[in-house]
Amino acid sequence: MSKVLTCEHLSKTYGKEKTALDNIDLSLDFGRIVGLLGPNGSGKTTLIKLANGLLQPSAGVLKIAGMTPGPETKEIVSYLPDADWLPDWMRVEELVNMFRDFYGTPSEAKAYIGFDAAKANEMLARLNIDPKARLKTLSKGNKEKVQLVLAMSRAAKLYLLDEPIGGVDPAARDYILNTIISNYSKDATVVISTHLIEDIEPVLDEAVFLKDGKIFAHRAVDDIRETEGMSVDAYFREVFKC
Amino acid sequence: MLKQLLKYEFKATKRLYFGLYLALALLSVVLGVTFRQEHALAHSTSFQNLQVILMIVYVSVILAIAVLCFVNTVQRFCRNLLGREGYLMHTLPVTETQLILSKLLTSMVWVLCSGLVGVVCITVMVSIGVLDAEVLGTLSWDRWKQLWQMLYEELGPEFWVAMVWTILINLARLASLILCVYAACMIAHQFKKQTMVAGILAFIGMNIVENQIDKLLGTNDAALFVDVTYKLVDVSNGSEGAPVMHYIAAAFGQGASCLFCFVFTVAIAAVYFCLTRWLMKHKLNLE
């Protein structure tokens, strides 16, 4: 179980026309912060959904810590989708309790506590988010913060964050990145999917570039800077120039 | 984890049902009171109009509860598991079996509760409207006891056995119907376009197949409510194309035929359950 995520000849097609992922091979180590980079429609969200079992591969295999996506992998994967995914009639405190009920108790798959409710409440208090407020009454930015707080309060082995900074202002982006960096378990891997590379570049260990459903490059960030003589953002602009 | 899923499923659905139950209970009391005043205000046109309006509202609330039971069954499955909330539900550390069972059990409980609330509310309405101290004075509880005793002796224990079977078979029928809806939703999920049409056609198609098998075996006769005059449901009556049930009833007795009907209904429900589970496990695509 040396790899947290492996893909072998993984493909995903939507219908007959659209190929979202085309025969990709990828493996990610534990304890890394990985940028999943690529323009819109390059297959980033598809790959993350496949890892969560929300989509089924058309061909190939995807494994999380050596396991096919299922209840066992869901114990160790923390997912932040790029859409509103929580029931908006629920109060913030009810959502915290819900996460505690489902992830917060030790089970066969994990001997540790999978959700830290105290940490979540502390982060919410720091953000001045009323725990009694219903999710639907919160602003877009606050809603995203609640979702992020819930995802980052999990003690997971793999964090899959799909566009965590896509819909928020630059000040909130800093907060979100700070939250990610200061809250993930150090032996865990964080995968951040985004096309806002400049913002996340300082925190990345490695970058996976997706282009037209294929892996264009999977390199250490330092290696890109040294070899190409440019930042990851500049390299991205070079590679994906229209 | 099933316990947790049930907890949040009831939490999500109770607000809708409790509101309508409360409205029905209040209307039952109000209508009961108006019935009681009927003689005194029989000549008042406005009173009669009010009574008609209240009656229409009352029937509307009962219909709303019935519609809610069906719509909520479909909606909770589709929106919660196949819509945006599916991102949460399918990333919880639970199995597909637990997800389907939580939806099924909650829907069944609400359908049964709605029926019970309906019966209680109508009883309350009639009681308030008809029963008063005078009427209650003429009622002898001993007579009720005698009537009950007579019924029990006349019908015998077979009646109660048949009642238990009727309840079990109809519960299985309810579960089978709900699971058929779920299977239709999962089939519809496989289509990119015309999803709703695909779901409706799948539901109709599966029901036609089920009914044909039902007719062939004669199991549909036994699922109806027990006819007390025959003490036990008469499965052979009018079931010309029912050799299996007829044979079982003749060879092993009515109890065996009821058991066969129950097992058959559970088997149909299990087929729908397995189909739903398989599609959810292997063909889920939340795009």
UniProtKB/TrEMBL annotation, chain A:
Keywords: ATP-binding, Nucleotide-binding, Transport. Residues 5-237 form the ABC transporter domain. GO terms for molecular function: ATP binding; ATP hydrolysis activity. InterPro entries: AAA+_ATPase (IPR003593), ABC_transporter-like_ATP-bd (IPR003439), ABC_Transporter_VariousFunc (IPR051782), P-loop_NTPase (IPR027417). SUPFAM superfamilies: P-loop containing nucleoside triphosphate hydrolases. It comes from the Bacteria. Signal peptide: none annotated. This is ABC transporter ATP-binding protein.
From TrEMBL, chain B:
Keywords: Membrane, Transmembrane, Transmembrane helix. The chain crosses the membrane at residues 52-74, 109-131, 159-184, 196-213, 247-275. This is Uncharacterized protein.
